[in-house]
């Protein structure tokens, strides 16, 4: 039965007894008095006081935290206290205070029931019980509860003594000499006292010693009821026995004998039970000790027990590994010898902490091993309690020397890596696959103008220029596939300027996850140098173009026999000169083309053209070469409309076919095909030549890249063809690539988007006409070239006049009104455009046909500014003099048959 239940039951019974007493008085029905005339009934004042005390207990005990209830409980108990104190004072002093007259008078109205007063013994018991309730309801705290419990216990004891008086017929005990206490009052007082005491809780002193787990409490629990029972029995036996046996001495002896037998029997049973329990406890203790030893023996940590003065009481076997001492070597000694002088305060401080009942947590200290070396350890310890007193410390000790060493090595390597990371001249960064920066170095911050903190919140796409940011997902995919990548890109700085960079990335593992480590090098200066070099090459090439054009034209004329037939040797040398001049012209053209295409200066003149025709044309152009090289050329193409610059696409195709011829063996085959694939045309040039090694495949489309350094010399290449082709294809939004197997051949592919039907413009057709004799004015500062042109035109009965300056050109034009003007733009006295501007002011000359023949590549706007009548634009070196001759003659034939019109080149 729990304490709570005991409390409730006792108080409820006490309440019941009081209620019956009051009802009995009221109804003149006194049960107890009827049992024996000796038994007096409980007076109504006493019953009422009991009811008030019970009410106080119920009010408080059920909800101790509610203030109104506590107040009620306190008030009830106080009334009882005051009332009973007055009764006691009245009894002790003899002063008639007559407080009970209140009740007596009232109760007497209920008939002839004899009315008794409250005994001072009862009053004393009730004062104790009332005080106990006042204390417990008015305040909390362990000491007060203890006091309340003791007072309640005293009240119960008074009740018990009175019961003994009734039991053994000793009227003195129940106060017959003064005012006797009713048996029911004694029982109610006993129960109420026990109830209030039990409600003080298991931790309260009088209760604790009875219900606790200690051997004391166990014995008390066994012997207290026994003692009470024996006392009651002995008393009863003696009273009854004396009247029955007649001899008090014999009765007493018998009673004592019986009591001893009972005590011995019960004591031996109790001893056996307690013994068994002790044995069980021992077993459990041994088992738990064994478990502890096994754990202590197997842990890496050292487990120890210290007294509060630092004496080692226990040390686990790990001690030998950690300190070099066997446990028995250290047990019983003070732990001080394991500490150096400088570390000893830590031992004392920790012991003080333990003595204060606190734990020592993660204490790091240096300790001494048996061999004198030092180790770093981490200690955790907590107090050992014995009978509520702290007697020592139980702790765990871990050797962390190695861990610390590894940590500091890691820190050092981290510092080294950081220093390296930050002191290189390259920008280094790591980003995850979700493309968030994880690490960036100082150089990246300087290069981009962002702080480290800013960059760590950003993504690589945020600092890449948009065209490179778009390529990033593809590059990551490539990186995942191959593991590394090397490419050019550009960073946009914080101020909006762009820094070209060269980027080398590879996949690494960073904090257990795949990430990209990238090293970026600022190549602004290199790019500037490249630009300067390109400009230089381009300027030189420009300057070379004019004299070369003259040389080539003169050689051409010589070769055609214009100045008589040369001897065979001379003819051969002339052919060599022609071939090499052609090669030189090709190189210069390629350099200029490449430079212009790369810088976007060459506009693509896109129009509707037929893919099939382009392939056929390219094949036709290349046929003589294939025949010469003994190579068969197969052509297969689908017709499809493209929106492209036909000359440029043809240029790309002839480049590829030219290469295929160059690198095919005699008797080899070449296939040129064009087929639709989705919304684009795929052009393919396949050969069975020597093939290209895999490591060169990616580089070939860069300028001056050749598989073999001797290719330029032996095959007559410039190393620019593929780069030009790539620029052309890319400016058509296409893609170019190569697949090749060494020794088996190569296939070059490029794509050009197909023309959406709606975009197709109408295309004018060209016409030809019959030749006629006309006058031409040639305004050209290079007399050689001017003479060659004149000589060519003369062959067609065209009369030419040559002037070497712009001024003379304007004057002569106005004077002779030529049928056609051939104009160079770079003139010693003025730019050709000024000549045009001047001639436009003349009514007749503003519509004279014009051929602009210049080294400059002109854009649409520039051309517009140079038009007179129908105007043609020829770029020197792109249109060599022979072609110039042919085209000019055709042009004149057409114009003079048409009668003149606006010209389109
Ligand atoms: P080149 O004027 O030297 O041909 P390209 O840019 O057209 O310049 O080609 C670059 C290099 O690529 C060539 O020098 C050659 O080494 C290689 N190459 C191009 N096409 C082929 C091919 N069909 N077969 C083998 N190698 C080729």
Can you describe this structure?
This protein is of the alpha+beta class. Helices cover 54% and strands 17% of the residues. It has a 5-stranded antiparallel beta sheet, with helices on both faces. A 5-stranded antiparallel beta sheet has the order 7-6-10-9-8, sandwiched between helices. A 5-stranded mixed beta sheet has the order 12-14-15-17-16. The protein binds adenosine-5'-diphosphate. Residues 655, 659-660, 663, 687, 689-690, 692, 700, 705-708, 711-712, 717-723, 746 line the site of adenosine-5'-diphosphate (ADP).
List the helices and strands and how they pair.
Blueprint: H1 3-27, H2 31-35, H3 44-62, H4 67-93, H5 101-108, H6 120-138, H7 142-167, H8 183-198, H9 205-211, H10 215-245, H11 248-298, E1 302-307, E2 312-315, H12 318-323, H13 327-330, H14 344-355, E3 360-368, E4 374-386, E5 389-399, H15 401-423, E6 427-432, E7 437-440, H16 442-448, H17 452-456, H18 460-463, H19 466-482, E8 484-492, E9 498-510, E10 513-522, H20 524-559, H21 568-599, E11 607-610, H22 611-629, E12 632-637, E13 641-644, H23 646-662, E14 669-677, E15 680-687, H24 694-697, H25 711-715, H26 721-731, E16 736-741, E17 745-753, E18 775-779, H27 783-794, E19 799-803, H28 806-816, E20 820-823, H29 832-840, E21 850-854, H30 860-865, E22 871-875, H31 881-898
Parallel strand pairs: 12-14, 18-19, 18-20, 20-21, 21-22
Antiparallel strand pairs: 1-2, 1-5, 3-4, 4-5, 6-7, 6-10, 8-9, 9-10, 11-13, 14-15, 15-17, 16-17
Helix pairs in contact: 1-3, 1-8, 3-4, 3-6, 3-8, 4-6, 6-7, 6-8, 7-8, 9-10, 10-11, 20-21, 21-26, 22-23, 23-26, 27-31, 28-29
The protein binds adenosine-5'-diphosphate.
Adenosine-5'-diphosphate (ADP) is lined by residues 655, 659-660, 663, 687, 689-690, 692, 700, 705-708, 711-712, 717-723, 746.
